[in-house]
Amino acid sequence: MRLPGRGARVDWLIVGLGNPGAEYDRTRHNIGFEVARVLIGRWELPQPKTKYRGLLTEGRAGVGGPRVAILQPQTYMNDAGRSVGPARGALKVPLERVLVLHDEIDLPFNEIRVRLGGGLAGHNGLKSLKQELGSGDFARVRVGVGRPPTTDPEQVAAYVLSRFAEPRDEVAEVVERAADAAESIVLGETTLDS
Asked: Which domains does the chain have, with CATH numbers?
């Protein structure tokens, strides 16, 4: 039986989902990038460098913690798998050790849930990851951003690509709690259910 992460360069590949470019900063869809940046700062990881069609940094999750790589794909959300697939392959990370940080419109703003696998709920970034990784059985930190009062695809897209209406300090608090949830998974303090 192969142990998780055995032979891998890192113990965890953490993926923050978002869209590249200043016009997408602080939008609901980019909350995965925000959580990734908090973890990079918290763990004092090196400045990310361009690799695997994304921004990648490697180091340890705190002093003596597991080896981690944090990737922020720069492919746009709908093609995130084209960055994550090659990174996972090169880093030799088992699928269950891929942790994805993403926005979730099916959760109210301020709610955070963790899980292993599950449905894609129409999230194009998750669809791309499943396609490139061959399965949706990766770990997730789902960050609630709320849902617009419509199911019209164009209006839903406009909603997730818009900036938060909530106060900036409340958004920052949600990002910190999502980073706490990710850290708890990486350090083995939280067990994931599918």
From this structure: 12-186 (3.40.50.1470)
